[in-house]
Amino acid sequence: MAEQPSSIPVNGAPDSTLAAEGTLEAESAAAAEVAPKAQGNAARQLLGMKGAKSGETSIWKIRLQLMKPITWIPLIWGVVCGAASSGNYRWSLEYVLIAAACMLLSGPLLTGYTQTLNDFYDRDIDAINEPYRPIPSGAISIPQVVAQIGVLLVGGVAVAFALDRWAGHSFPTITALAIGGSLVSYIYSAPPLKLKQNGWLGNYALGASYIALPWWAGHALFGTLTWQIVVLTLFYSLAGLGIAVVNDFKSVEGDRQMGLKSLPVMFGVTTAAWICVLAIDIFQGGVAAYLMAIHQNLYAVLLILLIIPQITFQDMYFLRDPLGNDVKYQASAQPFLVLGMLVTGLALGHTVL
Q1: Dihedrals phi, psi of 312, to nearest 5 degrees
Q2: Domains of the chain, first to last
Q3: Each residue of 175-203: pLDDT tens digit?
Q4: Cα dihedral sign, 336-332-69-119
Q5: Neighbouring C-alpha atoms within 13 Å toward the C-beta of 64
Q6: Of 70, 66, 155, 73, which Cα lies nearest the Cα of 118?
Q7: Phi/psi of residue 198, nearest 5 degrees
Q8: Cβ contact 107:80 at 8 Å
Q9: How far is 6 from 152, CA to CA, in rounded Å?
Q10: Higher-pLDDT residue of 80, 52
Q11: Per residue in 59-117, pLDDT tens?
């Protein structure tokens, strides 16, 4: 007689129980794998980063996503560099709070205004390149976006005026910078000028907005904004042009379809990548040469030492695959660039210009 299959499983557990446990373990492992990805997507979405997914329902989180908090950081840093270059910043509670107000102006308010305005006018191209963005995905209505643009602009100008009052300016320098910068943001994004349609003008406007404008605001808040500072930071902004070009590689196809003349579209990916890195390196090198000319040799050497790793990462990542390594390159190299800005600010703060 053939033996019946044993109903007593291995290790005393029924076969069906073992199968169920295996299924549960697999599901748990899958859930554990998905959870961090979901959290990562949520964070990317909130920060306004490339690669996020749509699906957010909180209107305040959607509004924050429109303002792209990840883009505030360089402008906040620009205020720090300007305060350093003024040579008059003091470590006191009052000065810290005033500097924080200037960072609020440059970052959340006016950069938030700029990014929201840009998304408003880019809603058609975003439908191709980044369909998960709040406007093309339908997460927020056009009237809500327009209201957000107005509130951020008015709030920014109001804070700028208050900072001018604190600084005792006879001419409202910071208010003028806020209004001028907002105008540049408008003509960058909006027709008929829409500077971003031209790879040279658009990227330089972007570079100057990220480097020169917040630097001027921080410097004017604690000192006197001189023509030497204006010229040097506009020169430094040519390195910012190179940084801005890096962002064009993610949207080559959409730019081509929409007729935007970004540098990768005009010159091709390889040539545009070389233009980008040469602008970043040459103009930082020019700033180092200027620091030597005003006898700030130590700071000049420090700046050169901060340029070297940028060149290394350009060769390792960006020049080899601009389309695939743009984000990796930015994450690796840009910390050295922004540290170089602070080194320059400190050097200028120790120099009478």
Answers
A1: -60, -45
A2: 59-349 (1.10.600)
A3: 999 999 999 999 999 999 999 889 999 99
A4: positive
A5: 14
A6: 66
A7: -110, 120
A8: no
A9: 74
A10: 80
A11: 999 999 999 999 999 999 999 999 999 999 999 999 999 999 999 999 999 999 999 99
